[in-house]
Design a protein that fits this description.
mainly alpha
Length: about 180
């Protein structure tokens, strides 16, 4: 499972990157920078000391942290609410077929919004209920796309780009799950 997770995740990342690399105009992918949003720094000041450069790097880091942190917190609250109000048994009852199980696990990956260091333990709880392909899809797709990351993507990328950032990994993870369910296992 570890090899498949690594290889498929790498493949999806490369394909997604190649698709976006075709676009030469960053303006068609990225949202415009707000005119009121300024950075009080310069890039590579020639006479700045190492300590001054480090201080500036930390200031930029803090600025980015607070800029994106609010979306991370909001996404975490939304994810926690969904986990609290949707019974796990309702999701499990739906995912018994080879196609539906993959779709349910992909949806669960988005809703749970758990990190890649914990998702394997969560997936272990579904081993006796869901197919190999659906669990593999969960492990591949979950770290790529979740509620928190989509909320952050929307702040940086245009809606069309966000759609592709979510849809390409979703479709490729779905295809992977179906291939494993029907052809390999």
């Amino acid at each position: 499972m570890l090899f498949w997770r690594f290889a498929i995740s790498l493949g999806i990342a490369v394909v997604t990157g190649l698709i976006f690399s075709v676009e030469n105009d960053a303006g068609s992918i990225l949202r415009p920078v707000l005119s009121a949003h300024e950075h009080d720094h310069d890039h590579a000041a020639p006479g700045a000391s190492f300590l001054e450069k480090t201080r500036k790097a930390l200031l930029i880091t803090v600025d980015e942290f607070f800029d994106m942190g609010r979306y991370l917190i909001l996404g975490s609250m939304l994810s926690a609410g969904l986990q609290t109000f949707i019974p796990q048994s309702a999701l499990l009852a739906i995912g018994s077929g080879p196609i539906l199980s993959v779709l349910v696990m992909l949806l669960l990956a988005i809703l749970l919004s758990i990190c890649s260091t914990v998702d394997s333990f969560v997936a272990l709880g579904f081993v006796n209920t869901f197919s190999f392909g659906s669990i593999l899809s969960f492990l591949v797709f979950g770290p790529m796309v979740d509620i928190k990351s989509v909320m952050m993507y929307v702040q940086v990328f245009k809606r069309r780009a966000v759609f592709y950032i979510v849809a390409i990994p979703f479709m490729m993870s779905l295809l992977t799950g179906l291939i494993f369910n029907y052809l390999i296992r």
